[in-house]
Amino acid sequence: xxxxxxxxxxxxxxxxxxxxxxxxxxxxxPGHAAWEYFGYGRRQYARIRELESVMVRTVNPELDEAxxxxxxxxxxxxxxxxxxxxxxxxxxxxxxxxxxxxxxxGAVAARGLPWAIRATAAEIAEVxxxxxxxx
Length: 135
Prior knowledge:
DUF2268; DUF2268 domain-containing protein
């Protein structure tokens, strides 16, 4: 279940799955405000976008790690500021949905959503890096 996956799956897998869910929601129900697909308010979405480079630097060294604490830090609401603090910056609650959507963007653009939802996290990363390099 939820807790077991949170313990065993890498942070990369968790973020890719949630990022694909965001892209799927956009495709299935177009026309909503961008922040609504993440379940954010307008101000939280603006704050997350401001902190994107900090969040990417924070998440990159942890992508291949697994542990329930990572799922809670990046994908849950209700965590204390201390639990979400990294290098004196408090990550916004549930920031992993935004990070995940950005992580899969290149692969979705290059190969399409039907391919991406069947691909592994490693395949998505590989296609995403190739797409970014050719851009």
